[in-house]
UniProtKB/TrEMBL annotation:
Keywords: Kinase, Membrane, Phosphoprotein, Transferase, Transmembrane, Transmembrane helix, Two-component regulatory system
Record-linked CDD domains: HisKA
Top EC group: transferase
Organism name: Actinoplanes awajinensis subsp. mycoplanecinus
Name of protein: histidine kinase
Ranges where the Histidine kinase domain occurs: 161-362
Length: 366
């Protein structure tokens, strides 16, 4: 900035072009060195050494213009503000000596009066105070960021551990239930079927937790997309849950959809579970083509959702409480975006419709 302003100053005062060019070149050299030097290989505070040549250039500028410090003061404060953003307070205090010399020495050499020299006793405390305030605020922000990073690390480890610890015993339970179901009839068979469905539901919850962890760490999920008969895919997924009255499915025969089957089932079951928990019957599942996307719509006939809440409904932990932790709709949105689609909540009268879009396969022409 100082170098650019010096070059612009040549246009305003051509008679001082040689001095302004000298200042601009010195600023440019310092800036170029700061840009090219591999600071990542040095210590955390190594860049503080840049303050010394910067102060020197400020002193050169004041001396070149016969002791006129009009431009030195603001840039000296700016240098201190930069230091406050990046370095601890002991470096700010250490800067007092070179900063004061850079300001006073050119004034002394050019025989400036005592009133001008005395301005240092006002400028330097102000520059230091500004830098101290910035340093304190920046330090608090860094501490908060480190604390949030530790919390996030703990949360990720907890979710990862929980998901894996849940899956291990579930596998054994699933095997036992399958063995018992082979010979069961009547009421025991229906009870075992219910237990198997709930076991599968817990398994999907563990998968969902792992999905959240993968999304947070990599930002994307790897999908295995294929073309499926939509009605068959939906009815198979809904067989995992039982609600009363039954869920209504409105999908034309012959409709196909290009999705990752496992992820699609997660989306559908999360939406249906959400509608059953917070809405009212009947719950209707529709899937139809709309231009270049397939629209999956899960509608309930409950009281609906306020407009202000609908905008943030698919955020992480946006909704939750005694009946859930608010991850279901967040996972729906992430899985929709992994398919290059989107998830939205649309108002209905009565109720609300959760709509997820899935792009039509590029080579599909039906």
């Amino acid at each position: 900035m100082a170098g650019a302003l010096a070059l612009l100053g040549i246009l305003n005062d051509p008679g001082q072009s040689a001095k302004l060019l000298l200042v601009a070149v010195c600023d440019g050299v310092v800036s170029l060195f700061a840009f090219l030097f591999p600071w990542h290989r040095t210590g955390r505070n190594a860049a503080a050494w840049l303050g010394l040549p910067a102060f020197a250039v400020l002193g050169l500028s004041t001396w070149s213009f016969g002791g006129v410090a009009t431009g030195t003061g603001p840039f000296l404060v700016l240098l201190y503000a930069w230091a406050g953003l990046h370095f601890p307070r002991w470096i700010l205090l250490a800067y007092l000596v070179p900063a004061t010399l850079a300001y006073l020495v050119p004034l002394i050499v050019t025989d400036q009066p005592e009133s001008i020299l005395g301005s240092a006793f006002v400028l330097m405390p102000i520059a230091l105070a500004v830098a101290m305030l910035i340093e304190a605020h920046a330090r608090h922000l860094r501490d908060d960021r480190e604390r949030l990073a530790r919390i996030e690390q703990w949360r990720s480890a907890m979710m990862n551990t929980l998901a894996h610890d849940v899956r291990s015993p579930l596998s054994a339970i699933q095997i036992v239930l399958d063995e018992l179901r082979e010979d069961a009839t009547g009421v025991p068979a229906r009870m075992l079927d219910m237990a198997r469905r709930q076991t599968a539901r817990i398994n999907r919850l563990a998968d969902a937790l792992l999905d959240v962890q993968r999304i947070d760490s990599t930002g994307h999920l790897k999908l295995d997309r294929q073309l499926y008969p939509a009605r068959e895919l939906v009815t198979d997924a809904l067989s995992y849950i039982r609600v009363d009255p039954p869920i209504e499915v409105e999908i034309d025969a012959g409709t196909t959809i290009w999705v990752d089957k496992q992820r699609f089932e997660q989306v559908l079951l999360n939406l249906v579970s959400n509608a059953h928990r917070y809405g009212s019957a009947p719950i209707v599942v529709r899937l139809a083509r709309d231009g270049d996307v397939d629209r999956l719509e899960v509608r309930d006939h409950g009281p609906g959702i306020p407009d202000s809440l609908r905008e943030n409904l698919f955020g992480q932990f946006a909704v939750g409480g005694a009946e859930g932790v608010g991850l279901g709709l967040f996972i729906v949105r992430q899985l929709a975006e992994a398919h290059a689609g989107r998830a939205v909540a649309e108002a209905r009268d009565p109720g609300v419709a959760m709509v997820v879009t899935f792009p039509v396969t590029p080579d599909f022409s039906g």
